[in-house]
Each structure stands twice: as structure tokens, then as C-alpha cells.
Amino acid sequence: MLFGQSIFQSVLDRLAAEEAELPTQSVASHRIQGLNTSFVADVRDGVSAASARPGEAYFDNLEPDPEPARINTPRPQATPAPTADVPPEERVAPPVMPAHLAHTSPQAVALELAVSTKDTLQTLSEKRRAFARVNHPDGVDPLFRDKATARMKIANLLIDEAIRRVELRAKLFG
């Protein structure tokens, strides 16, 4: 205690005395009182941040278009070539769905993954990667992506659940 006052009370008294010494007349300023210069908006080359279109700043980094964009210009439709004019060896056959994509039930995917209680985190990760190599939607024809996506979702759910069980078993039985 200083002169019969607590330290807290002496600090309050000192702050009150300093506040009384400050000029009462406020000075007009463009800065907010109490903030240092690091809070002032950056002004480069005489252009303020507000007038620099900050929402469109990413346009400045884009390459200029080699050709101006055509708005509302219809794209030419590709007309299928008549098959009578194309020799049989040059005809393109429609894509064939891989057989494994026909099985989208959780039971079929679980059977294919063969997840067991003996699996470790490493073997589960290997199974996930091997399944994704064959079934990932990016690796199949766009016509079959829905089925591949469904299979991947089911596989990921099954493997995530198995990983949770392995981690829980490790916590409980160490």
C-alpha cells in the first residue's frame, strides 16, 4: 500500500489526474483516437483503399483475354455424323459400364472391401486407396459417375466406421 491506498486505487487516482491535465478541446483528425498508424488504411500512389475496388482486385492478376468474350453467342451444335457414311472400324461405340459399378448396395461394397476386426489403420487406409483407384468418379465415364460416387460414399462410410472402432479398441484395451 502506498500512503494508505491500495496499488489499484493509486493507479486509478493517477489516471484521473492525467485525464484532468489533457486539453478539453478536441482536435479534428482523420484518425481514430487511440489507434496507432498500423490501423490506418494503406494508401499507395495516392489511391485510397476505398477507391481501389478491393472486391475486384483479383482481376488485376488475370492474364488479358486474347479474344474478347462473346456474350450470348450460341455455340455451334455438334451434329452426329451419319453412321452409314462412317466405315465400321471408325465408329465409336458407346461406353460400357464396368461390371463392378452395377453393385451399389452397402452389402456389396462391404463384401468387396472385406473389412474385418483384424484390420489396422494401415490396412484400412490401403483398402481405401485400392478401392478408390478402381471406383473413383474421376476415373470413369461421365455417364457412370453417379454410380461411382455412390460406391465411394458407401466405402468411405464403412472404412471411417471401421477406423473409429479400431481407435476406440486401442483406447479401451491399449
Summed up:
The protein is mainly α and 174 residues long. It is 39% helix and 0% strand. The chain has helices at residues 7-21, 106-113, 121-135, 145-173.
CA distance, first residue to last residue: 56 Å
Q: β content, as a range?
A: under 5%
- C-alpha Rg, in Å? 35 Å
Report low-confidence residues grouped into runs of 5 or more. Answer: none
The helical percent reads 25-40%
H-E order: HHHH
Determine the number of helices (DSSP H or I, runs of at least 4 residues).
4
Spatial shape? elongated
Largest sheet: none
Structure in words:
It is built from four helices and no strands. It has 174 residues and is an all-alpha fold. The longest helix is centred in the last third of the chain and has 29 residues, at 145-173. The chain has helices at 7-21, 106-113, 121-135, 145-173. Helix content is 39%, strand content 0%. The two termini are 56 Å apart.
Secondary structure elements and their pairing?
Elements: H1 7-21, H2 106-113, H3 121-135, H4 145-173
